[in-house]
Fold this sequence. Notes:
The chain is of the alpha/beta class. It has helices at 2-11, 14-35, 41-59, 65-71, 73-89, 96-104, 107-115, 118-140, 147-174, 180-183, 187-204, 206-209, 274-281, 299-305, 322-327, 349-360, 403-429, 464-467, 477-482, 484-493, 500-512, 554-562; strands at 218-219, 227-234, 261-263, 267-268, 309-314, 332-335, 365-371, 434-441, 446-447, 455-456, 471-475, 498-499, 514-515, 536-538, 544-546. It has a seven-stranded mixed beta sheet, with helices on both faces. Strand 9 (446-447) and strand 10 form a beta hairpin. It starts with a helix and ends in a 6-residue tail after the last helix.
Amino acid sequence: xxxxxxxxxxxxxxxxxxxxxxVVLAIxxxxxxxxxxxxxxxxxxxxxxxxxxxxxxVMTLSRKPGKTIWILFPFVFFAxxxxxxxxxxxxxxxxxxxFLNLATTNSGEAMELLDNLLPAxxxxxxxxxxxxxxxxxSWSGKKKLExxxxxxxxxxxxxxxxxxxxxxxxxxATNRDYEIKIDMYPANVCYNLVLAVERAGETARYAETSxxxxxxxxxxxxxxxPEVYVLVVGETARACNFGLYGYERDTTxxxxxxxGLVAFTxxxxxxxxxxxxxxxxxxxxxxEDYDCIYKQKGIIEAFKEAGFHTAFFSNxxxxxxFIDFFGMEADDWKFIKEDAPESENISDDELLALVExxxxxxxxxxxxxxxxxxxxxxxxxxxxxxxxxxxxxxxTDAKYKNREYLMNAYDNTIRYTDGFLATLITLLQxxxxxxxxxxxxxxxxxIFDDDRKLFLHASPVPSYYQLHVPFLIWMSGEYRENHAExxxxxxxxxxxxxxxxxxxxxxxxxLAGVTTAYRNDSLSVASRQYxxxxxxxxxxxxxxxxxxxxxxxxxDIEQFRQKNLVFP
Length: 568
């Protein structure tokens, strides 16, 4: 005990703490120097010299360094958060979407993720918690920095800041894309936090900003013909693990045999985050015009205006996002996990009972949206043990050495999705309605697929595995007979490049014969007017970026070409 107190006293010597606090704040800058290889060397050097010098200057504003480090606590939090994300994704700073994910991810998902990021979490705790504790002890003590020491360190800080400013000016002069708010940590993180707060405010005002919006939608199909249309939004399903797309494993035995099913081979998502991708699938918003989401209502409202009874059923928890807003525009809606304990795993099959109930209600015109939990991590919890076709699948820790287990579990989720969609098709075939179903996923997933050892999704820079998603359209025999021109157009467009989020809204309205000034048939894969156009990715600042401008690695570009996908 005596030795422990001596160690604490030694560590709490003000000048040692002064140096320690600068080091712990600057760790992310040092790591980013090596991870952000796409930045010019001069910019990466500047990203160390100027921030570290500013930290040094701020630390001289009080004679008690422990007080200063607690005043700088938000930056301590940023540093810890940044290091965890670098461990997970290998590069890039804390994105706007990461801040928004903190508000929209439910606690169950968060705990699943944190359980598998234990090394990173423990690492930041070991570094930053002791620093904060020592800061508190020092703050409460009597020892202070000498005035002479403060003056000397302030002089060093001014010299460093002068050099940093000079390097920044040179960076601006030599690199036209360089911006402090984008490229310099922690200024870029602070900027992203401000943007996140602004977007959260715009989202909270959605009810007010969209209240007077109308699609002025009207139906064109025979009013006496019973019709059912279903939009299924999958979760974290990547196309390359579907047997339908040539995967070596038989993950889609039922869909392979489904009559009337068309699989689109070259479909990319416009976002690798659920909270942006799903709202685009449920509305007219796209990477090219994302901000319309704050003023317009969703696809469900368009179907309602056209006289359809509408339903929205989700196997995810509500989180006060656009997914909730658009879903709750339906006549009937339900989040089946809302009242369940966080620890309870409810299977997607529970949604089918709600679908069956809607089908039995006798609605002449019916539109249903299903939001599944699909292949979201933890994969093994997405299917019952009886559906564990690919084994072993018992190890779930997010480690490269467990890739075989993780991939087996992931493939089981795709096999489970296959059965889910096949059962849904059977339910639709059991009606006397002309019916059609569209299935796609919000984004894909990295599963330690190459030597980069990337895992999960929502990384600041996406990979091929996060972008290439399944896109399936099923049409009943009666629908194909009644709307042969649409069936032919779908067959004609099946191998063309498609931006999934930009197409779903227009394709669903086209399938159902719902007209509105907001429908654009050049974006509908169910139309002969469909046009191939450059595909964009919605970046962190909600700007559309061409695929060749978002930092895709050579390995990802090779995957696009191996799969015969159009790039860019």
